Amino acid sequence: MTTIAVLGNGRVGGNLATALTRAGHEVTVADRTPGAAAHAARTARIVINATPGAGSPERLTALRDELRDKILIDVSNATIDGPDGLPADLIHPGSSLAERLQEALPETRVVKTLNTMLFPVMTAPATLTQTPTAFLSGNDPQAKQTVHELLVDLGWHKEWITDLGDIHTARATEAAILFVPHIIRANGFTPFAISIAR
């Protein structure tokens, strides 16, 4: 059992919290109550960033002390929305939210994952008709191994998980969000994941 704090109680955060609790972990979800995020992060071994990516750097750098020596799993995408509310562009072209977080939080081990799919797939990958891929990006091999094990707890088969390398590789998976609005416009909000076919 691992103590996990989920920052963000929307669809993504709530879905992850429910699934991780079901898998036997001790999970705390931080709402927007003042001090809730700091308390949750302070008492957890792993923190999941499921807050909107545009404001994540400001929110998380405010928790620098609480996040020291912790694993921070970043599942968010930092995008500029178009008129229809769907992602239209990246806030950090030529970089990534995960890289910005790692630079701002050097004593925290940031791992990027689960940001290349609609949220239901994060915790139910086997429901897709074709094999999905979950990507990992991060500088710390041990932190990535811990996240790999959490993904297995969420139903991801080991062979479905691909370690892309250090945190700079997150700019590739974050750029993949630009596929999402076009896929949604073509097929609606049917669950999907951006995957590598072999």
Question: Topology, please?
Answer:
Layout (H helix, E strand, L loop, with lengths): L2 E5 L3 H12 L3 E5 L5 H7 L3 E4 L6 H6 L2 H4 L3 E4 L4 E3 L5 E4 L6 H8 L4 E4 L6 H5 L10 E5 L2 H13 L7 E5 L4 H6 L4 H8 L11
Parallel strand pairs: 1-2, 1-3, 3-4, 4-7, 8-9
Antiparallel strand pairs: 5-6, 7-8
Structural class assignment? alpha/beta
Radius of gyration, CA atoms, in whole angstroms? 16 Å
CATH top level label: Alpha Beta
> What's the rounded overall pLDDT mean?
95
- Helix content range of the residues, please? 25-40%
For this structure, the CATH topology is Rossmann fold
Question: Would you kindly provide a written description of the structure presented here, covering whatever features stand out?
Answer:
The protein has helices at residues 11-22, 36-42, 56-61, 64-67, 97-104, 119-123, 141-153, 170-175, 180-187; strands spanning 3-7, 26-30, 46-49, 71-74, 79-81, 87-90, 109-112, 134-138, 161-165. The protein has 198 residues and is α/β, with parallel strands linked by helices. The protein has a single domain, classed as Rossmann fold (3-Layer(aba) Sandwich). The strands form 2 sheets. A 7-stranded mixed sheet has the order 2-1-3-4-7-8-9, sandwiched between helices. The chain starts with a strand and ends in an 11-residue tail after the last helix. The relative contact order is 0.15.
